[in-house]
Amino acid sequence: MAGVQSMWPYRDDLHVLIEAPDGTLVATAIIWFDPVSRTAEFEPVGTHRAYRRQGLATALLWHGMHRARDAGAETMLVACVGAAGRPAARELYYGVGFEPFARDVPHVKRAP
């Protein structure tokens, strides 16, 4: 993780995490913000298999989108590689307001 944290434009305030009560990391998203285009890209986004289908990724994305908006983002991007074969991920992104955009960047959302 130290390698990622030393990369530009990594921002600690745009790295959202959810921990279980025992301190285990269960969900995470890094938000890469470009102040020139005012675009925030969520990559990677992930939830541990044992904690899926509990609403954690939805909460993580909403919290991350609000943080990105507060940082100045006007547009949010998330790539769902292989979206056709990942219906749960695709529906997660649609459920928080992302829409298909392009094949390589298939979901886009205006800041809430």
The helix count comes to: 3
Terminus-to-terminus distance: 29 Å
Give the quaternary arrangement of the chains.
single chain
**Can you name the CATH architecture?**
3-Layer(aba) Sandwich
State the low-pLDDT regions, or none. none
Number of domains: 1
Any idea what the shape is?
globular
- CATH superfamily heading: Gcn5-related N-acetyltransferase (GNAT)
Domain N-acetyltransferase: 1-112
Pfam families: Acetyltransf_1
GO molecular function: acyltransferase activity, transferring groups other than amino-acyl groups
Keywords: Transferase
Which characteristics define this entry?
single chain, 112 residues, alpha+beta, Aminopeptidase, five-stranded mixed beta sheet, 3 helices, 26% helix, 29% strand
In short:
The protein has 112 residues and is an alpha+beta fold. The protein has helices at residues 2-5, 56-71, 87-95; strands at 15-19, 25-34, 39-47, 75-78, 107-110.
Notes on the structure:
Pfam families: Acetyltransf_1. One of its GO terms (molecular function) is acyltransferase activity, transferring groups other than amino-acyl groups. Keywords: Transferase. This is GNAT family N-acetyltransferase. There is one protein chain. The protein has a single domain (about 1-110), classed as Aminopeptidase. The chain contains 3 helices and 5 strands; from the N terminus they run αβββαβαβ. The protein has helices at about 1-5, 55-70, 85-95, and strands spanning about 15-20, 25-35, 40-45, 75-80, 105-110. A 5-stranded mixed sheet has the order 1-2-3-4-5, covered by helices on one side. The termini are far apart.
